[in-house]
Amino acid sequence: MTSTVGCLQPSYLPWIPFFKRLINCDYFVILDDVDFSKNSSHNRNYISNNDTKNLLTVPVYYKSKCPINQIKIDNSKNWKKKHYKSILQAYINSKFFHSFQTDFEEIYKKEWNSLFLLNLEIINFFKTYFNIKKNIYLSSELNLVGSGNEKLVNICKYFNAKYFVVKKNTEDYHPKEYFNNHGIDFKYHENTYKEYKQMGNIFIPNLSILDYAANNGNNLII
Q1: Fewer CB within 10 Å, N or C, the chain?
Q2: Where are the domains of the chain?
């Protein structure tokens, strides 16, 4: 049997393609020990309110060349209250938000110092909500050497995987020949998904999966 590995960095309130890749992989690895990227989905994402995209950003103490799992949240700013208030305003009248509201609110009642642990909690929340029966592995727990593509190849070898999931047109930084030389081929992934019901008058793409859950419930159709 040939198996497939997919790897992604942990996002705050991830979008649908994050979970699409999780579903379509045999082994899914969160790259928690790679460098944090400022102004990325690592600590921010979008929800929708009144046909407008609303960006929610977790404030952090930023350090250059710092692994994601070492990034600390700046709790001097009242971000939890502001984020949950924005979420409530956006989705309190949606069809399905009430079905997970109490459990989801608990996330914002907890004390968080680690951005990664917050992200992982949210990822696992939606993984459970959508009944996704896939294990998630952390790259920091695999104890593998290397960085960049060497690290990704070693992750594939760890799981004895034949295929590594990549987006099309990314071979400039994922050289196919390099992976092929290690006996690994590519399986291509598209960050696309079906248009789904939203509360507004226009469809707004590229939002957090929270938007899908609030408007469509736990039947994830991608």
Answers
A1: N
A2: 4-216
